[in-house]
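#random but structural
TW: two for the price of one
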Amino acid sequence: MADPILKISGLEVAVDGKPILKGVDLEVPQGEVHALMGPNGSGKSTLAYALAGHPRYEITGGQVLFGGQDLAEMEADERAQAGFFLAMQYPVEVPGVSVLNFLRTSLNAVRGEEISPRDFMKLFRQKSELLEFDSSFTDRYLNEGFSGGEKKRHEILQMAMLEPKFAVLDETDSGLDVDALKVVSRGVNSMRGPGLGVLIITHYTRILRYIQPDVVHVMFEGRIARTGGPELADYLEENGYVEFGAAEAAAAPQA
């Protein structure tokens, strides 16, 4: 097993003074895809935003090591430069900033050097084709007027272009029809390899049919309640989260 790119020990996080995470222990080796499942309100998205450095999410205890560095000592932009990436559950709209300018500025910031316009456009076209991202969106403002599927494709397009060492996908499957889910999953799978660790945060098992996880964790009431192999997702799809104290399904309702 590879050394963990992300090592979380006894992590406690509060939001506006309210404790949400109450001692999370979790390791993700580089080169592996882990799924973090759990009922609504269990703390999954809190973990994602705390890792990304959102100021509302205060680490009050424990430790997070990212590539051997103490994540709590790093600013959000420093985490990105170190290779951390978050695909948000609800991507924000940024009026006045075009998709193309956003991507190029992000790429330059993460690399710490200017990419030539020619090399940037070559990379952009290559990754856009993979994600079936309409080139007509390049001059539109970031996420403004985008459908849910378009926003999620753009999140994964960012990931493909930035080539992070570790990516957290926070409920990337929410709001996607099956065709968009397949495209997004294909993009993530194309990036799998020894240089990338992935944590997929999801309520339902649907995305795990297309992105096969190496390990599945269940979060409940701010802690990791169980860890297992891919078969754990199948178990949850059949039985839901009842045994963890929540009468919720882990399989999305049929349309």
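TW: number two ↓
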Amino acid sequence: MDRLNSRATWIKLISIGLLLSLWYLAAWIPNKAIFPPPHVVAGYLIEDVQRAGIWQHLAITLTRILLGFALAMAVAVPFGILLGFSQMVRDLFGSWVTIGLMTPSLVFIILSYTALGLNELAAVIAAALAVVWVLTINIWESAKAVDNKLIQMARVFKLTPPSIVWRIILPQLAAPLMASARFGLGLIWKMVLFVELLGRSNGIGYQIEYYYQLFDLGRVLEYTVFFVAVMLIIEVAILGTIERRLFRWRPTTRMA
């Protein structure tokens, strides 16, 4: 086990080294420099993390991500479960999901800002609308795989519908819901940056757009690297830990 973990760590380090090497090549090969190499961007980042500004923008963006993610999941989970178990709901709203999936995210953002104004509520709703359809269809497909025989048995024992949902359906959907949450978080933060770029005057997305307008690609990459690093920490250290604790009963298989 220790040897496998050590091997995986070295492979990841080699992968990161390869990525940095490609970055250096892309920065130095062209006759006209397009963007700075990693050590220059790292210098910008070290300089800015000692100031309050970058952390304030990060806090604003993370707040929008949390609110947008909570709203998207609050809609997608019950909607997806209902679609999976009710033919009537599928007949009524199944086409809505398809239309939502086919509609460009930019349209949802423009409609939200037009209807609600350039404010925080519109930003959060726009980000949630852009991802809720993907989460809904993931949960819908997972609900189809729930063992219907267990539900029938629960009805024989006269369990109430809330009890059936809580004791039979949700435990079977726990793993797909966790996977959808991790997938949804990856989508929502990209949408939030897009929303900030189009209609807010603060946040990481706004900063990236601001430095792009100045054609300062070093600062663009600095904010990009900083935010991706933060989201990786949240994804791996927080959500990954929660998932391992929730599903530690599952056997793990490793390939040599």
